[in-house]
Amino acid sequence: MKKFGFIAIILVIVVILTISYSVYIYNSQNTDFVGWLNTLISTLISVLLALIIATYLFYYQANLIQEDTKNKHIPLIEKNLIEIWKNLSNLEEPMKIQFNDKEELDFYLLNIPNIIFEQAVCSNVFDIKQTGFLLEMKSVVDYHNAVIEQFINTFARFDENSDSYKKSLKFLHINNKNSMIKLKESIVSANEYFKFTELENEIKKNL
Fold it and tell me: Model's pTM, two decimal places?
């Protein structure tokens, strides 16, 4: 919109210059000079108007492409958020880790793809707040997946008698729970930046 405003200002200036020049022509007595100046000014105005029209059409076309790209991403983002929300709200049986002292930890190995959020951010068609939300979602998903990956690597070397492994798994267990809570909080906040009707209805079912 700022670009179109700039073009409008230029057009106003051109109109003012044209009217001023017309008044000058009317009051001038030097016809030879006037003829030469008339040709020069007419050429400059024509070129300027052509540039303004070309610029306007360029930005108009770019705006259409940007809007089309945005409209393609929005349904994918909402669908992905709904899918994550459903998975978080209907978690399957967790993986249980039991230590020698009978203490037990539950791990939910829910891996979540982040490609939709990454592509949306890279498209550069969303405003600052929307992009901030998408970056937050990507960050939370990356963190959640990293915790699961670290758990799998740690569990592969798990020794029931090792205090260090027990501490590591307890730490990962806390982060596993926190990451899922953060995911839900972030998804709930989505409608502060987008108008996701289906997502809103889905959230209401499981709040």
Answer: 0.72
